[in-house]
Design brief:
39% of the residues lie in helices and 21% in strands. It is α/β, with parallel strands linked by helices and 250 residues long. It starts with 20 loop residues before the first strand and ends with a strand.
């Protein structure tokens, strides 16, 4: 297990117990909080997350895309994550964005809303039928057909064909077993000052859980360490949705 930051010592009563975890020397140790305080913190956080999702108002086209994702058994980015993607695309004045994992178009809609009016989203997914739903959702949002380029196929087969230093933002929401390969490709694709963004890095809390974890969680931990230690990136981990790892290419 990787160590994500130096050990943290939390002075609390020795008989207090909590499931709140902070990085420790040999993995993840328990930061002890009184049970009543833990319930207040947990309740406040859940309420805050719910408020953040409600604050990010979504239109009918997004709701339609989310419904198609649920029917297909796909996980969509949360409304607050979508709002963050929209803001990040606007922050870099994105004209060219690459997306790994089209799904039914939820994240793509948010990215397109944040991009320049003449911007083009290149979105890759191994399931062409999912991309058809995304096409319909984009059209319902009023985006012209030339605003999105759909490429069916496995990301690691498609990405090497995209132009070096040709993108302002790369959004990764694909196979978690391939995260480090996505990072390497993103560094090649991005211009200096561009953003790489990984969704779902909390893995529903498993990333910081001290128990045995599946390979995909181990890959997330390796990604977090690689991004933090890279001399080519300025990273930040945003606690929205299921965790959004962002980094600016120097």
């Amino acid at each position: 297990m990787i160590q994500l930051c130096p050990p943290v010592v939390v002075p609390t009563p020795s008989n207090a117990r909590s499931h709140l975890r902070v990085p420790g020397g040999n993995g993840y140790s328990h930061a002890r909080q009184p049970r009543g305080q833990e319930r207040v913190i947990t309740g406040n956080r859940q309420a805050s997350w719910a408020f953040a999702d409600a604050y990010a108002a979504e239109d009918e086209a997004l709701h339609w895309a989310r419904d198609r994702a649920r029917e297909a058994g796909l996980r969509s980015v949360s409304p607050s994550t979508g709002a963050a993607l929209r803001m990040l695309a606007a922050t870099v004045d994105a004209k060219a964005v690459a997306e790994i994992g089209t799904g039914t178009g939820v994240s793509g809609i948010h990215l397109l809303h944040g991009m320049r009016p003449d911007g083009v989203l290149t979105t890759v997914d191994p399931e062409p039928e999912h991309q058809q739903f995304a096409r319909q959702a984009f059209r319902a949002c009023g985006f012209a057909s030339n605003r999105a380029r759909f490429i069916p196929g496995r990301a690691l087969d498609v990405l090497p064909r995209l132009a070096d230093v040709g993108y302002d933002l790369v959004f990764c929401d694909g196979d978690r077993l391939e995260l480090l390969e996505y990072l390497a490709e993103s560094l090649r694709l991005l211009r200096p000052g561009g953003l790489v963004v990984f969704e779902g890095v909390f893995a529903n809390g498993r990333t910081v859980d001290s128990g045995p974890q599946p390979t995909e969680v181990i890959r997330i931990r390796e990604l977090l360490r690689a991004v933090r230690e890279s001399q080519d990136l300025v990273p930040s981990l945003l606690p929205v949705g299921d965790g959004l790892l962002c980094a600016v290419k120097r």
